[in-house]
Write a structure and sequence with these properties.
Elements: E1 7-9, E2 15-17, E3 20-21, H1 22-29, E4 33-37, H2 38-56, E5 60-65, H3 72-80, E6 84-87, H4 90-98, E7 106-108, H5 115-124, E8 128-131, H6 134-146, E9 151-158, E10 180-181, H7 186-196, E11 200-206, H8 217-237, E12 243-245, H9 263-281, E13 287-290, H10 294-297, E14 301-313, E15 317-322, H11 331-335, E16 341-343, E17 353-358, E18 367-374, E19 382-386, E20 406-411, E21 414-419, H12 424-428
Parallel strand pairs: 4-20, 5-6, 5-13, 6-7, 7-8, 8-9, 9-10, 9-11, 11-12, 12-13, 15-17
Antiparallel strand pairs: 1-2, 2-3, 4-14, 14-15, 14-19, 16-19, 17-18, 20-21
Helix pairs in contact: 2-9, 5-6, 8-9
The structure holds ligand LLP.
Length: 432
């Protein structure tokens, strides 16, 4: 019935998540409120982990892409689940370390890491730094040498795979700001440079072709291309690189008619292609790293809002305004992303109207969605927007000086506040 198995409706007709009544959650913690089901997150982690056991003989690692949702609590959950972590800034690195995440299980990404961030990564002993460009490669070599250290690196490669997703979240094609291009010889030149630098230990390669992708083919194509490149490196330099990180990007269910394939199918396909391609080219199979973000946390989360004004413009549309908007979910304004919403205090009633859900910011484009089926609603109702666990809190802002909402993790009917709601003092804390 719902886009996520953690959602249900109780005897009072209220939406529940992870066994908690959303109406009670809203009363206890206020709105807007992000709520995430911890068991759903753990289930997704286990599914990826087990797929590596099943299809790739356990010779792999799942690293959660924390840009999808980063805070200390989620880092601890990920650690308990035995996963690694992808961080993409000094801030995400700091969050992971503050949560006690072991640095050797971290992958440090980014197309323009600052010298300070690289120093921090070296100082704490990050497992792998994923190097994006020659400037960074040389800078890292110098910084590592000056600290008497060797940085374990992966080179970020653009495999030239054009995945079918929104152009802003597509990254594997040649016209992308990320990584070294294969076709132009840039990638091979980077390998040569990396092998020659003191302070650098080239451990492997990385690629990431985009996000919210439903097909298996682009992942399998990328895997095949990357194995080909590993083999070319072996032929040319006699070096077998041990690690192949194939990024994330696996699609999730935002709408009832979305049909993402089970996560383990990605690993099944990738494993088959990797094993075949390695056998053909006569190289050892590398350690495979997968980096899912959205598919670990996305469907586990919802956002609860209180409905305010309802404005019917005859013959045009009905605007239903909520007490949040682009400040907690900028994905409609950025990518026209579609969501399902419902009135959580009357979740058992049919959706008998179609509305535009508007946020509270001074901006006409501040919408959660247009043409959204919804129960007829009135001020004071509780609205739930579904599948907001990924790239919502992490992309939230204080535009219009709106404080960011709180985040609650629920587990078997028990809520746990993991990020406090911002208050007005938080907004002026750094003002001088
Ligand atoms: N690894 C790397 C290097 C990445 O750049 C990303 C996402 C991931 C892994 C995780 O991808 P996922 O499994 O979450 O698709 N803000 C956009 C998504 C941007 C994704 C950026 N990179 C959105 O809201 O759709």
């Amino acid at each position: 019935m719902f886009v996520s198995p953690c959602l249900d409706v109780n005897d009072q007709g209220h939406l529940t998540i992870g066994g908690c009544d959303t109406v009670e959650l809203a009363q206890q913690f206020g709105t807007p409120l992000y709520v995430m089901d911890e068991s759903e997150i753990r289930r997704a982690c286990a599914s990826y982990r087990e797929s590596i056991e099943r299809y790739y003989d356990g010779k792999g690692l799942v690293a959660y892409a924390s840009k999808a949702f980063s805070c200390k609590a989620i880092c601890r959950v990920i650690l308990e689940e035995g996963l690694g972590l992808d961080v993409v800034s000094g801030g995400e690195l700091y969050t992971a370390l503050s949560a006690g995440f072991p640095p050797e299980k971290l992958f440090f990404h980014g197309n323009n890491k600052t010298p300070q961030e690289l120093r921090e990564a070296l100082e704490c002993g990050v497992g792998y730094i994923v190097v994006d460009n020659v400037f960074e490669l040389e800078l890292l070599g110098e910084l590592a040498s000056s600290q008497g250290k060797t940085a374990n690196i992966l080179l970020r490669i653009k495999p030239g795979v054009d995945a079918h997703t929104h152009q802003f979240i597509r990254t594997g094609q040649i016209d992308s700001k990320f990584g070294f291009a294969l076709e132009t010889g840039e990638a091979m030149a980077a390998v040569e440079r990396a092998l020659s630098l003191t302070g650098i230990h080239l451990k492997g390669l990385h690629c990431h072709i985009g996000s919210q992708i439903f097909d298996r083919e682009p992942f399998e194509a990328a895997a095949e291309i990357m194995i080909g490149f590993l083999a070319d490196i072996h032929d040319r330099w006699g070096r077998e690189l041990e690690v192949l990180n194939l990024g994330g990007g696996f699609g999730i269910k935002y709408l009832s008619d979305h049909n993402p394939i089970p996560y383990d199918k990605y690993m099944e396909g990738i494993s088959r292609v990797v094993k075949q391609a390695c056998a053909q080219r006569g190289i050892a199979t590398p350690l495979i790293v997968m980096e899912p973000g959205r598919s670990i946390v996305g469907a586990a989360g919802i956002t609860l809002y209180t409905v305010g004004g309802v404005k019917e413009i005859p013959g045009i549309r009905t605007y239903v305004s909520v007490d949040g908007g682009m400040t907690d979910n900028p994905r409609y304004i950025l990518y026209q992303s579609e969501y399902e919403a419902l009135i959580a205090n009357r979740a058992d009633q049919p959706k008998d109207t179609v509305v535009t859900v508007a946020g509270r910011c001074c901006e006409s484009g501040d919408l959660i969605g247009e043409g959204m089926p919804l129960q007829r609603t009135q001020p004071g109702d509780l609205m739930a927007v579904l599948s907001t666990g990924a790239y919502n809190y992490s992309m939230a802002s204080n535009y219009n000086r709106v404080p960011r909402p709180a985040v609650v993790l629920v587990w078997n009917g028990t809520p746990r506040l993991v990020i406090r709601r911002e208050c007005y003092e938080d907004l002026v804390r750094n003002d001088l």
